[in-house]
Amino acid sequence: MHPFGRFPELSLKDLARVAAVRALLDAGIGVKDVQAAYSANAMAGMLQGQEMVRGQTVLREIGIDRIPVVNVENACASGSSALAQAVLTVRAGAADVVLAVGFEKMYVSDLAVTLDALESAADLDVVRGLGIQFTAIYAMRLRRLIAEGALTMDDIVDVAVKSHANGALNPYAQHRKEVTAGQVRDARRIADPLTLLMCSSICDGAAAAVVARRGALESRGPTVRVAASRGASGFTARPEGESSLSTMCAEGAYEQAGLGPSDIDLAEVHDAMAPAELLYAEQLGFCAPGEVSSFFRAGSTRIDGSLPMNTSGGLSSRGHPVGATGLAQIAELVWQLRGEAGARQVERPRIALAQNSGGWLEGESAAANVHILERLEPWDWNRP
Amino acid sequence: MHPFGRFPELSLKDLARVAAVRALLDAGIGVKDVQAAYSANAMAGMLQGQEMVRGQTVLREIGIDRIPVVNVENACASGSSALAQAVLTVRAGAADVVLAVGFEKMYVSDLAVTLDALESAADLDVVRGLGIQFTAIYAMRLRRLIAEGALTMDDIVDVAVKSHANGALNPYAQHRKEVTAGQVRDARRIADPLTLLMCSSICDGAAAAVVARRGALESRGPTVRVAASRGASGFTARPEGESSLSTMCAEGAYEQAGLGPSDIDLAEVHDAMAPAELLYAEQLGFCAPGEVSSFFRAGSTRIDGSLPMNTSGGLSSRGHPVGATGLAQIAELVWQLRGEAGARQVERPRIALAQNSGGWLEGESAAANVHILERLEPWDWNRP
Lengths: 384, 384
Description:
Two copies of one chain form a homodimer.
Chain A: E1 2-5, H1 12-27, E2 36-40, H2 44-47, H3 54-59, E3 69-73, H4 78-91, E4 97-105, H5 111-119, H6 124-130, H7 134-148, H8 153-168, H9 181-186, E5 189-191, E6 194-195, E7 204-212, E8 224-232, H10 245-257, E9 266-268, H11 276-283, H12 292-297, H13 314-318, H14 325-338, E10 351-358, E11 367-375, H15 379-382
Parallel strand pairs in A: 2-3, 2-4, 9-10
Antiparallel strand pairs in A: 1-7, 4-7, 5-6, 8-11, 10-11
Helix pairs in contact in A: 4-14
Domain Thiolase N-terminal (chains A, B): 5-213
Domain Thiolase C-terminal (chains A, B): 248-365
Organism (chains A, B): Streptomyces armeniacus
């Protein structure tokens, strides 16, 4: 990863290059070992004027040449979509070693342009007519849950406190300061009940991952396997009783991995607004329907809990540079599975889940991906 | 396909929807049969303000829901890159039936924005410093070949005449009028030696293809198999003697298909400027090095020649709505292989090659793809 934050002195390419090179170094390979590459970016067309060949402009500079490079874009799920394509490419036997790199530079001289670009994560014909945007959509979902008694205002405040506490432990995070419940509650109201300290911010950053056929690379410590990769786009609001898009992806991923929610040791989920973590805990099957409040209140999702969520700080504290987020989730989970997560290390995790979603089209995400990662070696094999 | 041309009354989504639905009808399937989809578009972020979820906004409107949809962007090679991802997806066993749809609407109220967006097919940090653009790059290559005696001015004029003659036979083409050599030669000079009638134009349009695992769909006439799919991105100008990116892709594709250039019965190549067809004839191995002029002069590339090229009219006459072009090449070849190409039908072709390239980075294409298609049934099986 390149750290997430505000980097006026660095170009979009600078950020991406750092993440890509670090991923290669981490894998112990050189650029000549990479056989295909996917780039994830969601906004450079509108923000930097660089459409069409975004990934190539980055990868050229690190010396990648004459391999297939494909630019992938799927709103806030761009990073995980690039990862999914990398996994497909290895699975199809088309390449043994594939690089996926996600990057975004949202701080530009005119932030109104950034807001316009963010709006295009929905169908413009729809949102411009409705006059609606993302924060409002999250807020309405939360208000309904509060009205139904499924969540309390304390829950959605405290989940933001937890997010910032984790972010404070993550050197790659945009927001690295603990906050109190009072500070969260009293922060500027963005869309009732959301306050500023619950929301992800405009952010620069990059993240990358190397996906390889098993056995193609020399082992450099614990091996992390992609046990499942499931994606979907959903356009219409679900009738009552029908599962959400992320639930559908998770169910597909559990089936693919031969696992269930109770096997998951930690998860990174798409908390573009911190309280969304609570929605996803239920949608991913981590707690029974209607019991997310008690699940959270029991401390389950803390770093020392039974199912730590967003140990990185999540989107709301680690930051959410759109094209990079899905791969930053993967970086966090790989570090955790290897025991390299420092002060935020979960105790000996073996199975991790990443849920990344993006865009909005009439009540559902425009894209969602769930990946399940598995540490293959037992913990005492590498670090007694 | 949706016809290529200028359609002020139609939105980008209108164009794409027509192509997608026609591909489904052609395959004899409904939206519920599609298990994954790829969208190819290169400019909508800058031209329509619709970044991030371009494909979803289209596919939602035809009723596609809850399948993986991924937006792919690779400059002028976006369409073939989407096709390549569709092929990978089937090959990986992740889906049996995949839709790829490419679309572009380049006519907008301010055509200066279209030119800016086209510029972003190269690394802006490079082209803005050099003050160079695509037409000039093609012109310099051609001037060198003329200076070396490999091509004559007559060759590059007459290949444009052939392109327009083919376009005149294609109801989907943007330019459907025959032109004379004198008209080509005397047309407005764009970048010496290129004149207006040699160049592809600003264009709206869409094209789509359905890729399926063999046996997954009921046969509705001759089956066309994807015999090879090879792509690459190349960033650095080649040293003398080293093959071009399209040559490299073609060699890979020939190997994958177990075929050679002499097996190819017809080809669609990326003639963004009509004379580029001559460059590609040599790069794809259709004629010996240095012999492209005599190959062309012998009429080999005409519809009734030994290796018809760009029977559709190619980019320069069929039109080049950037994201759609790679899939329009596939549509033409599939029609030809099935015997459905009407007045421009080649006599009983069995093997066809599509070469699509895009972008420019310091002397090479930012992306290129070569696909080889094969008609499986003998010709007399279906149409005696």
